[in-house]
Amino acid sequence: MYQRDKPDFRKKFEFFLSFFRAATVDFTMRFNVLFFMLVLSYLCLALAQVSYDDCCLKYVKKMGHSTQKHAVRYREQKIDGGCNIPAIIFTMRRGRMFCTDPREKWVQDLMKRIDKRESRNDKYHSRHLNRG
């Protein structure tokens, strides 16, 4: 009687092992697919953020005169794949940025003032550097 139970036990054990192997292969395949999807999602998000990092989405209505005095430089944002509106981005002394409408008169005036200030600084520095 003991001899008859032995092959039956072996069959059950082999069935269990085959089931376990199949489950392991299935689990490994699912894990690989999940890992691939996560990496792909991360790359898509990372690439998408690159194009929207420095884009203005809306304009400030007006900057007070006291705020305008602190503007040290500006740059132009053009309409391209990631940026939907044209804008002039003013950078203040402490690094804060303001997005403005380039068609506004006060924006054009502020750009002229910054250009004038920059040209004065360039002349001053070139005179003093050439003396030494």
What does this structure look like?
The model has no long low-confidence stretch (mean pLDDT 81). This protein is of the alpha+beta class and 132 residues long. The protein folds into 2 domains: 53 residues; 67 residues, OB fold (Dihydrolipoamide Acetyltransferase, E2P). A hairpin with a 4-residue loop joins strand 2 and strand 3. The longest helix is centred in the N-terminal third of the chain and has 51 residues. It is rod-shaped, with a radius of gyration of 34 Å. The protein is built from 3 helices and 3 strands; from the N terminus they run H-H-E-E-E-H.
Gist?
This protein is an alpha+beta fold. The chain has helices at 2-52, 65-68, 105-131, and strands spanning 71-77, 87-92, 97-100.
- Count of DSSP H/I helices: 3
Q: How many strand segments?
A: 3
Question: Gap between N and C termini, in Å?
Answer: 110 Å
The CATH architecture designation of the largest domain is Beta Barrel
**Strand composition percent:** 5-15%
Name the helix and strand elements from N-terminus to C-terminus, one letter apiece. HHEEEH
CATH topology of the largest domain: OB fold (Dihydrolipoamide Acetyltransferase, E2P)
Give the C-level CATH assignment of the largest domain: Mainly Beta
Q: Spatial order of the strands in the main sheet?
A: 1-2-3
Share in helix? 55-70%
The number of distinct structural domains comes to 2
What is the average of the pLDDT values?
Answer: 81
Largest sheet: 3 strands, antiparallel
Radius of gyration: 34 Å
Class per helix and strand makeup: alpha+beta
Name the shape in a single word: rod-shaped
Low-confidence stretches: none
